[in-house]
Amino acid sequence: MDTDWGLCQPSMFTALQKEVTALRAERDRRPAAFSSFVPSSLSMVQTLMERARGVDATSLSVDLKNLKVSLPLVRRILSQAQDLRDFIKINKRSQLVTKQCSTLAGSLARMHSAYHTSLISLTGLPFHPGDAMQRLRFASTLLSDLSAVKLVPLPQDTTHLTLAETRKYIQAEEFNQAVRELISSIGSVIDSQASIEECMEGLSDLETPDIEALTALNQESGALLDALYRLSRDQTVARTLVQQWKKVPLVTKVQAEREEFEVDCLGDRLKRLKGMTGMGQERAAVQAEIATRKQTLASMQRSIQERARLTRRLAPYTHLPEVAKALGQPLTPLDSALKNQAVMGVGMMVKHPVC
């Protein structure tokens, strides 16, 4: 019996020694965490508590369901909005007169129609996706901040604590109690953390939709579409008129007056020849020349009248470079021209949906 005890004693001593060492390590570790505790950490928990009061678990649950349904629509309209902004940025209003407006109008009409439909769907939802996204992001940030808050490990043996350590011990207890109350107060939100983070992954690359900004963009693109339709019509009409205008011979008023003077002079000569004998052949020649010059004068007057008519027709379109160049006039600013057209009743405003 004594021999067996002697053989077992070293192994038992080694096991006990390991256990004591482990206990000492545990004892040393906990006071280290306790020693690093800063009493001001309690105010951080109190701040989190205030933020937690702004989270309603029931409303958050509804938000999660609503966003799951509406996120595809939100993603679509934000993408469409960016396409419209890019189109507007590239096709500046002041430069439209130099572009093929019928082609641009066709492209913008398709974009605007699709965007307008999405906007109606978005504004027709029984909830505001932007508000729901903000509440979800608020809750996600709160949970992320809360996950960094840990209970302070307290020393198991308080017998040898100094007075200062005892005070810190009590403060650490208050901190731990505040953490417990905080976690308990938003337990339902914590239970939904997986669903929240899953939804947040879908929101990671999305901006919060601003209904007012999206509506303003709809109106801006609609106004641009109006301008493109009107300019497309203007370009078509003006192009035809300019072609007609170029085909009309350029005759000045002075040239027509000179030709008329020549006809009058020939008429006076013919009168003189009528009183002379033997001048029949010359009278016939003068009469023929008068007839020819009268035809020329009539043609010149028709050209002047036609040019004047076409010039009046082209007057509302001097905001187009080809018209201004043909008439030798300065280019009229686009907005002024469109405003003048509205006053003069030139063309009709194209009707299309605008929120």
Would you summarize the structure shown here?
By secondary structure, the protein is mainly alpha-helical. The chain is 77% helix and 0% strand.
Report what the structure shows.
With 355 residues, this protein is mainly alpha-helical. It has 2 domains: 189 residues, no CATH class; 66 residues. The chain is 77% helix and 0% strand. Helix 3 packs across helix 5 and helix 9 packs antiparallel against helix 11. The longest helix is centred in the middle third of the chain and has 37 residues. It is rod-shaped and about 165 Å long.
Features:
disordered C terminus, 13 helices, 77% helix, mainly alpha, 0% strand, 2 domains, 355 residues
Determine the fraction of residues in helical runs and give it as a percent range. Answer: over 70%
**Oligomeric assembly:** single chain
Mean pLDDT: 85
Structural class assignment: mainly alpha
Strand content: under 5%
Number of discrete domains = 2
Radius of gyration: 46 Å
Order of helices and strands: HHHHHHHHHHHHH
Count of strand segments: 0
Shape: rod-shaped
| Head-to-tail CA distance between termini | 100 Å
